[in-house]
Amino acid sequence: MKTKKIHIAAILLFAMTLLFAFPLFGQEVEHLSDVWKEFTYIPLKRVDRCKDIVEMFKHFGADEIYVEPIEGGRSCPGNIIVPLKSGTAKDRLDGDSVSYIIISAHLDMEGDGVGALDNYSGSLMMAALYKGLKGSERAHDFLFIAFDREEEGLLGSKAFVKKSRFMPKMPENIHAVINLECLGITLPHPWPEGSSDSLEDLFIEVGKRYNLDLSPVSIKNVRTDSLPFLEKGFPAITLDGIMPYDLFILGSRLDVPAVIDKNTFFQSYPILLEYILEVDALSEWPDPKNVR
Length: 292
Known about the structure:
CATH architecture: 3-Layer(aba) Sandwich
CATH superfamily: Zn peptidases
Largest sheet: 7 strands, mixed
Strand content: 5-15%
Structural class: alpha/beta
Number of strands: 9
Shape: globular
Radius of gyration: 18 Å
CATH topology: Aminopeptidase
Oligomer: single chain
Number of helices: 7
Strand order of the largest sheet: 2-3-5-4-6-9-7
Number of domains: 1
């Protein structure tokens, strides 16, 4: 999450242990545990972060992975794009219309920590969701994208929207963009400044099934990768797991794996997975408007 510089006096780190747990069984536990191990060592260089995320997707069975450099070069670093076709894709005829859901997070960091919260947490959750969705029935094709250079002004997402090997196929066929940011301090909630109202409402409804209030939480003076899509009129939402009083962590030496609560990170997974499947099942195109 790209922040403007904020000067805050010394603040004690807020911590909370949730008093409930969602059931996680079998393979779900195994692949979330694989993801959690990645917090043991987080590389600082963009090129190494890129390579680690590529390897995580390969570990979860991705055999089609693209890296689109933002400027120059032909490999990492760059935007990592992992397609996941719908169950009916093999029956699709050439020329058939395809609609996509994009699941995104940014891979780069800035500051004195290691960027565990901002935003390796989002990138690793994205890989876990790839694994979960790979075995599910889906109506849409998916693109999982780890955007590079978000911290430099959303350069990765802007570059993708402007020119990508995938964009000629789908400028009007983006069903929704679901962007993940800073997960693992609180359960995820919509960021209203960067989210379509219709997608916010659906996330709130999913939260109610868990008896949770997952209402939008406004955070000022930040920008993230859902914005270039909203500006082009595509339905998009950013889901994050921090509160305004957590912003002092971002870019500081506190942004290390210890700041992320394992229970909260694990409990975020089934909520996000169910929400994505709900977006996939929508019979009507989500309204892209963001007027709140």
